């Protein structure tokens, strides 16, 4: 299959839902690794999940088993909101899976860089290296060695239920903050909320602030992270980060989130979006495909969070986030490596993107997205008007945790913007 045919096929399938229901499996450890690796026909795979829709990682496993009938993959899904800590605990205890879902960069407990530096991951070869998009090498590489194999490009923005919006009298998503706040009132008058937030979870609270920061921080200062690494700026002195948190608080105070958002879990998103009681939420746009399956009578599309004014530049969040690594203590490294090699083959290179509703790992600037869920942000993606996820190269996971807990504090009234920003600087410098 040629690259052109793969890209065309992927573009056509980006709007398709993932099928079937997720089958949960018990945790199965890999055992202790040793120097002699047998060529076994089995290995285990762990990944994060936050709903009962089939995970794209399960899709990969099923397709691999179909292509290799003698192979048995034990699936070990873990709750998304505790996945990073659970993974760390399993790795330290020596009972983690052979193949593990990781995240590119360094800003989370599941991120490639800190896991590699802790000697939890096995170095990968040129097959994985060739999957890394240009400019993203530092997100999966330590001392010249690759430890994570990227699976696709993930766009994080607004998952928008167009059917629910139109039922509430909203014809198109806002392009500036003033209009956005007006739409919050419009949705409320129709008995809906414009956004649903899983405020009690670190992933959703953190990504909400990160998506807002794309327009308030990185659109004007794309290299802000590097400036912070160089000690030229701080969170506390950054007007962009102040505006980011002020915007989150303003959304809450204006009734843009559902009642009890600060204590809600991921089920609030799934239930609210599939029932049409809420119009949108902050998150990875691949979720739209999953929701489309759960609610086929609704239409879900991708939108970018609006800048402060219509004259400001709209900016999104897109980067190679999902990746796979091999447990350094695995006793099934040969089988695990064959799995990663298979994923990298031309016929499978876009499989994860198809299954997750994400974007292919290459060719983004030339991809025709006009008939997909990404149609409204196609120009932004094609032109490169986006930034990697804010925490992708933050120095440690504590910074992102501080951002998420800071958002929670703003919603409950237990913290304020200045205090949150100072906590981010403290976490950064620890």
From TrEMBL:
Keywords: Cell membrane, Lipoprotein, Membrane, Palmitate, Signal. Pfam families: SBP_bac_1. It comes from the Bacteria. The keyword Ribonucleoprotein does not apply. InterPro entries: Bact_solute-bd_prot1 (IPR050490), SBP (IPR006059). Residues 1-20 form the signal peptide. Gene3D superfamilies: Periplasmic binding protein-like II. PANTHER family: ARABINOSE-BINDING PROTEIN-RELATED (PTHR43649), POLYGALACTURONAN_RHAMNOGALACTURONAN-BINDING PROTEIN YTCQ (PTHR43649:SF33). This is Extracellular solute-binding protein. The lineage of its organism: Bacteria, Bacillati, Actinomycetota, Actinomycetes, Micrococcales.
């Amino acid at each position: 299959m040629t690259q052109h045919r793969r890209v065309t096929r992927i573009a056509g399938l980006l709007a398709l839902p993932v099928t079937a229901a997720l089958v949960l499996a018990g945790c199965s450890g890999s055992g202790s690794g040793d120097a002699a690796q047998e060529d076994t026909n089995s290995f285990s795979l762990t990944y994060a999940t936050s709903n009962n829709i089939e995970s794209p990682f399960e899709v990969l496993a099923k397709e691999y088993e179909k292509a290799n009938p003698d192979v048995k993959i034990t699936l070990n899904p873990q709750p998304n909101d505790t996945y990073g800590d659970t993974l760390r605990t399993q790795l330290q205890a020596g009972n983690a899976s052979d193949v593990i879902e990781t995240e590119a960069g360094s800003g989370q407990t599941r991120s490639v860089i800190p896991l590699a530096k802790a000697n939890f991951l096995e170095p990968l070869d040129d097959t994985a290296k060739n999957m890394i998009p240009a400019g993203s090498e530092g997100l999966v590489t330590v001392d010249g060695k690759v430890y994570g194999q990227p699976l696709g490009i993930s766009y994080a923005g607004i998952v928008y239920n167009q059917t629910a919006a139109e039922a509430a009298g909203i014809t198109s998503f806002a392009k500036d903050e003033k209009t956005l706040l007006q739409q919050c009132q419009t949705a409320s008058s129709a008995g809906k909320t414009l956004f649903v937030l899983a405020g009690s979870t670190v992933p959703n609270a953190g990504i909400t602030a990160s998506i807002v920061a794309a327009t308030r921080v990185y659109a004007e200062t794309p290299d802000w992270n590097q400036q912070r690494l160089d000690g030229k700026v701080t969170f506390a002195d950054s007007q962009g980060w102040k505006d980011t948190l002020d915007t989150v608080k303003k959304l809450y105070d204006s009734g843009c989130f559902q009642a009890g958002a600060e204590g809600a879990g991921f089920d609030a998103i799934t239930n609210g979006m599939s029932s049409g009681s809420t119009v949108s939420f902050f998150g990875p746009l691949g979720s739209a495909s999953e929701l489309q399956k759960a609610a086929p009578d609704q239409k879900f599309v991708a939108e970018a969070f609006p800048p402060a004014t219509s004259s400001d530049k709209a900016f999104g969040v897109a980067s190679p986030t999902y990746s796979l690594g091999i447990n350094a203590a695995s006793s099934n490294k040969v089988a695990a490596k064959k799995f990663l090699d298979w994923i990298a083959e031309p016929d499978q290179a876009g499989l994860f993107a198809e299954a997750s509703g994400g974007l292919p790992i290459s060719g983004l600037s030339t991809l025709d997205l006009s008939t997909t869920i990404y149609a409204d942000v196609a120009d932004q993606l094609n032109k490169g008007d986006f930034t990697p996820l804010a925490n992708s190269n933050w120095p440690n996971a504590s910074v992102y945790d501080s951002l998420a807990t800071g958002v929670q504090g703003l919603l409950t009234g237990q913290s304020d913007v200045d205090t949150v920003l100072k906590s981010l600087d403290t976490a950064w410098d620890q």
